[in-house]
Design a protein that fits this description.
Layout (H helix, E strand, L loop, with lengths): L6 H5 L5 E3 L3 H9 L4 E3 L6 H10 L3 E3 L7 H12 L2 H13 L2 H18 L4
Parallel strand pairs: 1-2, 2-3
């Protein structure tokens, strides 16, 4: 049994994920076209889980409503939302990914540093 595995290795074979709705695991899940079942516990996880549901890429279970039957039903519903997760993966890919984001940030920073923003 492994204590930790890189998300990528798991997501290549995953039919769905059950996660806490943290930004990292959720973005990686959806970028892989895998539907998510989020069980948020704090910080921004509740909002991230709500966005997953809103875009049709998965489901969410409130921690105070968590039960075996409820989680099982939410996972089944999440699996049915694969099309939504795959649509998000295509949208992420169309933006150019991390390289495009870094380039845009660098360009913005260069404008601020040179005073072109003023």
């Amino acid at each position: 049994m492994e204590r930790w595995l890189p998300h990528g290795q798991l997501l290549e074979k995953a039919a769905w994920t059950i996660c806490h709705g943290g930004m990292g695991v959720t973005q990686k899940t959806l970028a892989s076209g895998v539907p998510a079942c989020a069980v948020p516990f704090g910080r921004d996880q509740f909002e991230v889980a709500a966005r997953v549901v809103a875009v049709g890429a998965g489901t969410s279970v409130a921690p105070d409503a968590l039960s075996t039957a409820g989680l099982r039903a939410a996972v089944r519903d999440a699996i049915d939302r694969r099309d939504g997760a795959q649509a998000i993966a295509r949208a992420f890919a169309a933006t150019g990914g991390a390289a495009a984001a870094a380039s845009a940030l660098e360009a913005q920073l260069a404008r601020v540093i040179t005073g072109a923003e003023l």
